[in-house]
Amino acid sequence: MEGQFPKNVKQVGNVSDSPKIYVEDYVDTYFSQLTEQGRESLVGVFLIGKNTVIEEQECIFVTGAVQMKDLDTEAKELSIGEEHLEMAKTESRDYFHGEEIIGWMLFMPGHPVGLSSSMIRVHEKLFPMKNSLFILRDAEGEELLYAYKFHELMQMGGHYIFYEKNPDMQNYMISERKQIGVTPSEVVEDRAAKDFRSTVRGRMEVREQRRESRYVYLTSVLLVIVVLAIGISTMNNYDKMNSVQTSIETLSSAMQQSSSDDEGQAERETPKIQGDIGEEGQENIGLQAEEQQMEPAVSTVQEELDSEEDYYIVQKGDTLDIISEKVYGTISKTDAIRQKNGLEDGNLIIIGQKLLLP
């Protein structure tokens, strides 16, 4: 901290005034404990620290505090003299090294916060130096901070709480805990570290929430773009999709009809064969039928035409124009073939499909 501002601070109030006031976290904890004691009787504290200048800015650092001894709490008028200050200097030398008393503080039971003439007299008598500090806190924890400048106690708008290792103040608080009810040493020693970690953790959680919010926002935007693209593509291809669906339904119906016709023809031919040759020849007929099924497929156009109805079985590479050319020797029958088979798209035919010929 020497020669530079503390990095880990918490602002209390408006800190635009000069000098800047910095109170160490352990000292602030000690103040909070004395506030409870100050609700019943007047409590006084001498402030320990230093006045310095950092980057041309006047600063007051409060790094310790020593409670006033033998303070007359029954007196009608505030009475703090040189004897109290000397006792505090002796005690501070036992705990605090290299720093001096730079001001004082009062905890007032049930009194409204505000300067009195006796407070001003005590301060000018004990701390007439520039930027000496006076803090006044009432039973509710409300406090006012004053810095002595231009021969007057000037009220300050706010101050900083700063965090750093402070073994001197820890040791003093441990020695005083039985008298003022301070928490055990292991709790006191960890307070600043816990407060700092809590502050850092809070900042990290805020950053993480902001990062997640940005990620969710970007994901949502991309999802909307994808949905819009799919929607536009679907609208543009709606007619094509309708055409494909109609063609598939037509082909399915034609293939089912062809299958039914083949089965009906087989049923009509079977009784005729049985009637001609009798039961004894049925086995030979069955063998001949199997042999015929094993023969190679027909290769000429005329062999592809059925005896009762004219069909054409689609070959690889066929189009309606090619089929019309094959069967009729001209492509003029292309449209008639398409209409005969209920095709919306004349090129949407598949290998092995049976087409009715007009």
Please describe what this structure looks like.
It is a single chain. The chain is of the alpha/beta class and 358 residues long. The protein has helices at residues 25-38, 82-95, 117-126, 167-180, 185-236, 238-277, 282-294, 320-328, 334-340; strands at residues 9-13, 20-24, 43-54, 57-67, 100-108, 133-138, 143-149, 152-156, 158-162, 311-313, 354-356. The strands form 2 sheets. It has a 9-stranded mixed sheet with strand order 1-9-2-4-3-5-6-7-8. A two-stranded antiparallel sheet has the order 10-11. Helix 8 crosses helix 9 (334-340). It is rod-shaped, with a radius of gyration of 51 Å. The two termini are 102 Å apart.
Give the CA-based shape.
rod-shaped
- Could you spell the SSE succession in H and E letters? EEHEEHEHEEEEHHHHEHHE
Terminal residue distance: 102 Å
> How many runs of DSSP E, i.e. beta strands?
11
Q: Please count the helical segments.
A: 9
Strand percentage: 15-25%
Alpha-beta classification: alpha/beta
What strand line-up does the widest sheet have?
1-9-2-4-3-5-6-7-8
Helix content: 40-55%
| Poorly predicted sequence stretches spanning 5 or more consecutive residues | 182-190, 269-308
Radius of gyration: 51 Å
Major beta sheet, specifics? Answer: 9 strands, mixed
Please, what is the average pLDDT? Answer: 76
